[in-house]
Specification:
By secondary structure, this protein is an all-alpha fold. Helices cover about 65% and strands about 0% of the residues.
Length: about 140
Amino acid sequence: MTVRKKNQIREAMQAWPKVSKIVSTIHTEDQYNRMLSILDELIDEVNEKSDPAKESLIDTLGTLIGDYEDRKVEEPEGDSVGVLKFLMEEHGLKQGDLQEIGSQGIVSEVLSGRRKLNLRQIAALSKRFSVSPSVFMDTDR
């Protein structure tokens, strides 16, 4: 190993006790929720002002969160309406609680299958329920 690599490893190890509180493999739901919160804050900051270091951290946190979700989080499967109804039931929600979709009439049309979810609605529901947007996308889109 070169002297430069040894120095880089030594520097990383000195910083690791602080860094590992944010960047580490997720093992518990509390760690998962904490990391989601950190990721949301970083995304908000980068949306206001681009920062390559923060963008790299966002990418790393996203990878760690994705790994945890692949291992632990079961996402509902089925058509978008069925998934939405399942999530509403799981969270004890009524039609009026889904303002991110629109008025109660629009929610009713979506739940009855007379109206498809649009991309804005899918993004909002994905964020609200902490699931992949793909669970709200039917294959016939």
